[in-house]
Here is the input.
Amino acid sequence: MNERPEILMTPGPTPVPPAVLAAQARPLVYHRGPGYAALLDELVDGVRWLLDTKSDVVVYTASGTGGMEGAVANIVSAGDKVLVVSVGYFGERFKTICERFGCDVTFLGYEWGKTAKAEDVAKALDDDPEIKFVFVQHSETSTGVVNDVEPIAREVKARDKIFILDAISSAGAIDIRMDDWGLDVVIGGSQKALGAPPGISFVAIGKKGWEAHRASTAPRFYFDWTAYKDAADRDETESPWTPAVSIVAAMVEALRMAREDGRQEIFDRHILLGKAVKAGVQALGLDLFGEDPERAHVVTTVRVPEGISDSEVVGLLRSKHAIVTGPGQGPLKGQVFRLGHLGWVEPLDVIRLFGALELVLAELGYTVKFGAAVGAAEEVFNR
Ligand SMILES: Cc1ncc(COP(=O)(O)O)c(C=O)c1O
Here is the structure.
């Protein structure tokens, strides 16, 4: 039994820095008092900084999926026409949620591994001018691909539709400019690139998001944006229900650390990690999965070599080297494994990962030139 702490190189949750864990362990503050009000204000301010927006931000005690459901529940009405653009598992989740809320869904589904194209979105909207809402993932964590959101948002805005972005695995890893790009609703989570524990989902809501909310008749209670806004507008109340105070404290600390580093610096760090991981994978003669891998700064998806399964690679990395990675999901099960390099991942984690991966692949019968992946990653970091 390996007693060493596991290193999370999954697509999320991600490693949590000690300062963030320590913040989580601080004595609890009462959520109907100034202590919590200060925490929540700082969290909201940090999210605005992260997403480059002046929008309102609602903070849910929920995982990312709660944020997705909350977004749908607050803007649609049964029978509304929506366009769900899907490049994988989480796009399909948006489709299911919209269907549960009685929406008439047009599904623009791409083969897993492809990225969404602005011209396809424009065509789908022109084909059915009654579509009101467009749902898109930024980073589709099941395949690693990162959609180029800005041109898609431009087409959506030009047609005066509401754009909802799932930025759960991209917020904090990749630049998002909510106001400049005209995004109306953006959803994020605590446990990915920010390096905080799971349990918080945040939703930034622009002017058109609020207009849609006022027109929406979908049933909702816990997730109702109006309840959150009313609470925030009352002095020192801030949250309508008992929030996950300790995780809020942790996320505030994670945001402080990110702000100390700087926006561009945290994005550049993810770009560098992504480049090093891809260089290491290719140095082993393995194939990268997915279109535009040079944009995949969050998760690198790797095809497993002939005769080896994803669960063998992922299983041995974990049992022998205490490194946790992700197997293939959905139709990619058995074919790929996923290396997460988001949040508090350091160059030495990547080097350790490749040292372990070289040993694991050799054990599974793949011909490995020892040191090739480690060396390729080091060269990227050394540049
Ligand atoms: C892009 C994306 N959307 C949604 C989710 C769902 O988030 P959660 O598992 O926190 O509910 C995830 C989580 O992996 C994700 O990566």
User: Anything to note?
Assistant: The chain has 14 helices and twelve strands. The chain has a mean pLDDT of 97.
